[in-house]
Amino acid sequence: MPNSQLRTMAEDDLIFYHDVHVAQTRARVGIEYYLGELARRDAEEATNEMIAYTKRAADMAWLTVVIAVLTVISLVTTIVAVHR
Fold this sequence. Notes:
Helix content: over 70%
Radius of gyration: 27 Å
Number of strands: 0
Largest sheet: none
Structural class: mainly alpha
Order of helices and strands: HHH
Strand content: under 5%
Distance between the termini: 82 Å
Shape: rod-shaped
């Protein structure tokens, strides 16, 4: 089966063809491509999740900066008000 066909196949179909192949051959020889494609998809999903987490962390860093600036402004305002 061509690699391009494996990549476009639904995951359920991929698992089904793997299981059929194992049942027919009763051996693990020749089924690495099914398992490899499933592993590639898992790795791609994990990579995409890590990228999303990184983007969220960057958004939180900006939030931290904004909170720090507002805290300094509040502190300066309090000091000025106390010294009047």
